[in-house]
């Protein structure tokens, strides 16, 4: 795996940055229920966003993290991050900048990308809502991009069988939905983040989708629409997305297990 530190050159702090991570953290977290914006909610007493920033900064490859805050919350997020040290000596040299986000994840990523210096060749996009991704997964994504893949996603095989349905809408909403197909499970993968990209490819994908005005649920999906190949590397169970209340229970359990195992 490529794990050379990237420090020394011409980022905002005067260092060359070859690999940057954009963390979209501007979502409300509606599915998690009422409360503060999801990225700011605590896990073991530390905001989810801080865990996510540490996960990126923990990679020797990542020397810049761009946090995309709620549109009116950039100053609050900056103050919050200043109150938490990045763990580890390598993390201490990672630069963190904060920019305001947008109405959709796609718009937030585009705004974060605009803050990435042109010296950067590899960009990771990582959900704040996946705070516990292990550093080995981050490194594997970076290594695959540096080895020449323009777009890389970590992913896992599915545990459940998946059905395609004909969704009921309008007056029929809530009625049982007819099944119209069963995709072959062995061919499917559940996709996580960080997704890693050659910078020019990701910029081109966001420009194309912004022009077309179409939505996409992940960045790799936009790259696919450019006709550029996206490849998959193994994801990790602990890179799950905190989406619903039960996910918070799982996240706390993972952190408790880490503390028990290695004094994290
Ligand atoms: N306008 C938005 C919407 C989402 N995100 C980010 O995109 C990631 C993945 O989104 P998701 O898990 O769906 O978060 P929310 O949009 O906050 O969740 P919900 O749909 O339940 O409101 C999160 O880190 C979220 O903060 C963002 O930066 N800007
Ligand atoms: C990017 C992502 O995490 C990949 O699985 C996912 O698509 C985000 O989706 P959401 O609708 O924003 O939760």
From TrEMBL:
Lineage, highest ranks first: Bacteria, Bacillati, Actinomycetota, Actinomycetes, Kitasatosporales
Described function: Catalyzes the formation of 4-diphosphocytidyl-2-C-methyl-D-erythritol from CTP and 2-C-methyl-D-erythritol 4-phosphate (MEP).
InterPro entries: IspD (IPR001228), IspD/TarI (IPR034683), IspD/TarI_cytidylyltransf_bact (IPR050088), ISPD_synthase_CS (IPR018294), Nucleotide-diphossugar_trans (IPR029044)
Highest taxon of the lineage: Bacteria
Site (Transition state stabilizer): 31, 38
Family: Belongs to the IspD/TarI cytidylyltransferase family. IspD subfamily.
Protein name, UniProt field: 2-C-methyl-D-erythritol 4-phosphate cytidylyltransferase
Keywords: Isoprene biosynthesis, Nucleotidyltransferase, Transferase
Pathway: Isoprenoid biosynthesis; isopentenyl diphosphate biosynthesis via DXP pathway; isopentenyl diphosphate from 1-deoxy-D-xylulose 5-phosphate: step 2/6
Site (Positions MEP for the nucleophilic attack): 185, 241
EC number: 2.7.7.60
GO molecular function, one term: nucleotidyltransferase activity
Listed CDD domains: CDP-ME_synthetase (cd02516)
Record Pfam families: IspD (PF01128)
Reactions catalysed, as given in the entry: 2-C-methyl-D-erythritol 4-phosphate + CTP + H(+) = 4-CDP-2-C-methyl-D-erythritol + diphosphate
